[in-house]
Automatic annotation (TrEMBL):
Record GO terms (molecular function): oxidoreductase activity
RNA-binding recorded as keyword: no
EC class (word): oxidoreductase
Enzyme Commission designation: 1.1.1.-
Coiled-coil residues: none
Pfam family, one: Mannitol_dh
Keywords linked to the UniProt accession: Oxidoreductase
Name of the molecule in the record: Mannitol dehydrogenase family protein
Span of domain Mannitol dehydrogenase N-terminal: 38-286
Amino acid sequence: MADGGSNPGRVPLRADALGQLPEGVVRPVYDRGKLTPGIVHIGLGNFHRAHQAWYIHRLMQQGKAMDWAIIGAGVRPADAAQRDRLLAQDCLTTLIELDPTGKSAEVTGAMIDFLPVEPDNAALIAQMADTAIRIVSLTVTEGGYYRDPATGGFDATHPDMLHDAAHPDTPRTAFGAMIAALRKRRDAGQGPFTGQSCDNLQGNGDVLRQTVVSLARLSDPELAAWIDSECTFPNAMVDCIVPATGPSEIALARGFGIGDAAPVTHENFRQWVMEDDFCAGRPPWEDVGVTFTDDVHAFETMKIRILNGGHQVIAVPAEILGLATIADAMAHPLIRAFLRKVVTDEIAPHVAPVPGKTPQAYLDLIDRRFSNPEIRDTTRRVAFDGSSRQPGFLFPSIRACLASGIAPSGLALASALWARYCLGIREDGSTVEPNDPNWDMLRQTARQARDNPVAWLALQSVYGDLGSEPAFADLFADWLRALHADGVEATLKRYLGQ
């Protein structure tokens, strides 16, 4: 294991410089010139490069999956800057594992190109229409699937969906581009590809199918039926904590002697569990630790409710208190105790065990992972987009409590903390910069809720009918009043019985 900080030189990350990388930095042993594409990945951020791309790279290190190289893509103007960074270094990425016992670096090379980012997505459509592409995968965030947050149904009224339905040959979204490519393949008498969501969503494959098929139906019902019957959309659970990249991560790569403009740091844990449902074939992922199962749902439920839900439980109060990282949050005794009590009393009772892991053992695992001081995962990043993450990660547990007669007191407090957070002011008086796509609306409503908590629960786009459930609403209102009157720490002590 190499440890950054001791190498004074710096090798620019490029294909022709791989042989010059310092000793101890793992690098590709395969001939990248012999790779051919099999996957287009849309939304090429840090998580993809630390997760799916790493698994493909690991197969290639074994001399396998050489025809499954990845072509990157983006549909947002901001993706063009990422394209420039990665193309300048031949699409290579430095992965830095942050283990409390030491750090190690590995250069991965499974990605071979990054498509131009265009308003009409012409290059992306053309690439996906190529039958060499057998999987189109995505990481577009939990809130990127054009769903109604309250119902989970397809939002056909969104301007992006209306645009793509009216202009199916020049779509602006990833889903419209997928449909346009599939139309070309069908019209040419060619087969479909698999759509693979790599986002943290319960039933992420089902959600992707819903978005693609529903959007296609708006402009071409026959094509929608063909997609629904011919394409596959496997559900999967993905897991690896991957912080955002900033100056400190770039400096960390330099400490290993590598000049990488877009390195990725990650924890020393990965998991990928998926259904084996690929209409055009797949890489032999099982050879590098991927679990294939017919019961992804159980793994998803455990991870989304305990890990992702737990992230929301701790990140929001930590942000209000000015704690910068998740590890800082876990070092705060009240926040850590809050996490353990909420999960033990209100989340874990509704989570089934999976092979080799009980919910309580999984809580102990994430306690250790969240507490890793080497991971500079910011509370701000984790608290982002609460209007999607609260309904996706916490509300299922609230509903499960209500259905079983358990008072969701801690979960109501977690939701009240989010309402307090959306005021946009920390307890030290500092300003919380906008941290949700709906920030202005949330902040205005949070101000109203200071005196009238019901105003917050009336956010139908977030709470749906949950806000009118007395067994939840009364607890929420009581906790929100306490937060405004007494502050976060005193309110947490009250919940914990201290």
